[in-house]
Amino acid sequence: MNLDISFGQYCEGKSVLHRMDPRAKIIASVLYIIVVFLAKNLWSFGLLLLSAAVLILASGISPKIILKGMKALTFIIIFTSVINIFWMKGETLLFSLGFVSVYLEGILNAIMIALRIIVLLIGTSVFMTYTTTPIALTDGLEQLLAPLKKLHLPVHEFSMMMTIALRFIPTLIEETQKIMNAQKARGADFASGSLMKRAKTLIPILVPLFISAFRRAEELATAMECRCYTGGDGRTRMNVLHASPKDVVLCILLVLLGMVVIFTNGLGGYSLSW
Questions:
Q1: Tens digits of per-residue pLDDT, 39-74?
Q2: Averaged pLDDT of the chain
Q3: Is residue 126 in a domain?
Q4: How confident is the model at residue 270 (pLDDT cuts 50, 70, 90)?
Q5: What's the domain range around 165?
Q6: What pLDDT is attached to residue 177?
Q7: Distance CA 124, CA 29 (A)
Q8: Which of 98, 133, 159, 253 has its CA 20 to 30 A from that of 239?
Q9: How far apart (Å, rounded) are the C-alpha atoms in residues 234 and 222?
Q10: Would residue 10 count as lying in a domain?
């Protein structure tokens, strides 16, 4: 089991996306998710792949880092694709073995669903984590949700929890890797045996991992109390967020991308079946 992934980690840089307002990047992430789910045929999915490549180039982040960050979800992507191959029926039968039938439409459907998940991960990770620091993400999310304060909702606390969760993902992954290495040094085997046996071998990992997570949470709470943290009321910021024309341009480009995707959906060809 390899946990060498970079999901949730900020990659320092000076690209255009790094210098953008975090509020614009949060809005851009929402718009990009909508655009991804608007795609229905091979033409529009090709356009999404092109947009993902442009985002990677604009971020200045190595594609290897982004691909490594998706390792944890490889099983989900493959499992979802395989389920669609054997589950979906169509008009073009490729082969049949007993009760299992594979259709061309099922394969195309599986490919497009896999591409949708991959493009979704690339877009959201580039906007939200790789080019945005946790502090900037907190400030941006809190200011976007500021109108909800009138309804007496704990906007600041919610933003803080989201940021802490993102911040501690790499830490917990690193802790898991250390525990696994310690168990392997004691003769534990996580790769062989039946599914039930491998599931049982995870228990010696989960127990110390939960203990470590609770210990870190307690230490963090103590540190925040020692620094007199009492919530968002009356707090000031060292860096005040300022929107720029390039932030507006990014959102406009994503809206235009959505319009082009809708147009390409009408060009014909195989369409994704929900």
A1: 888 888 889 999 999 999 999 888 888 887 777 778
A2: 82
A3: yes
A4: low
A5: 22-265
A6: 84
A7: 6
A8: 253
A9: 21
A10: no
